[in-house]
Amino acid sequence: MSRKLGLRMRITIALSALLAAALLAPAARADRRTLIRAYEYMTQPEGNLELEIWNDVSAPTSGFDQASTQQRIELEYGLTDHWDLALYHVFGQDPGGPYKFDSWRLETRYRLFEKNVLPVDVELYLEVERPADFSQHWITEEKLILEKEVGRFALVGNLRLEQKPFHGNEGYELEVDLGARYEIAPQLRLGAELWTIRETVGDETAAQYFLGPSVSFATRRFWLQLGAGFGLGDSTSGATFVRSVLGINL
């Protein structure tokens, strides 16, 4: 056997062993994400603390050389098995601008019941944002999270509303997320998602539409989600949104 062939065989065996070990490893018990926009029907288990690191890249229709980036560092804690609380710091960079601290955000979620008690699982979400630029106003976000799981397959829907309290003249944002996921193994899920974001200021409304795939991998200690959305329609064609999230049980 040649040295090159032997090396290839060893690499193949090592990769196969790593994949097998990963698929046999217990799945994470934390707040694992599969889709990049829609939240699924899950909260942190009671007493569980998780660190999440988010990375977003938003490229406009003009291309990636005009892309902006955003990073979030989040600590999420399960108050009960149905109710959690998260605090995160947001950083970002606009094209050609400096990398800077963007905002503080406080988030809470509440699951009404255990899975499959209702025909469709229902979860409530509330977020409050304080921009680092104190001349800007507070932002609040409400979200209705819906999910229907049948075996390894699930359909997910989110309705999100964002506004600046007491400053309605500055407009609001409405987002609808529709997604589906399939669990190949407890550690590996695939997803697909369609979403639209409609921003309204006065009588003017601008709409964006995206469609894209995602993948999620999990072990007992961490989970990793990666996905992308590609713009649809005249106003969004050519735009791209990429998101990765790493969750680590502390």
Structural summary, described in words:
The protein has 250 residues and is mainly β. It has one domain (29-249): Porin (Beta Barrel), CATH 2.40.160.40. It is 10% helix and 57% strand. The chain has helices at residues 3-24, 233-236, and strands at 49-59, 68-78, 83-93, 100-111, 121-131, 139-150, 153-163, 172-185, 188-201, 204-218, 222-232, 240-249. The chain has a twelve-stranded antiparallel barrel. A hairpin with a 6-residue loop joins strand 3 (83-93) and strand 4 (100-111). The model has no long low-confidence stretch (mean pLDDT 90).
How large, in whole angstroms, is the Cα Rg? Answer: 20 Å
| N- to C-terminal distance | 47 Å
Uncertain residue segments: none
Counting DSSP E segments of at least 2 residues, the number of strands comes to 12
Helix count, per DSSP?
Answer: 2
- Which bin fits the share of residues in helices? 10-25%
**Strand fraction:** over 45%
Q: Just name the CATH architecture.
A: Beta Barrel
CATH class term: Mainly Beta
Q: CATH superfamily assignment? A: monomeric porin ompg
List the secondary-structure elements in sequence, H or E: HEEEEEEEEEEEHE
User: How many domain units?
Assistant: 1
Global shape: globular
Overall SS class: mainly beta
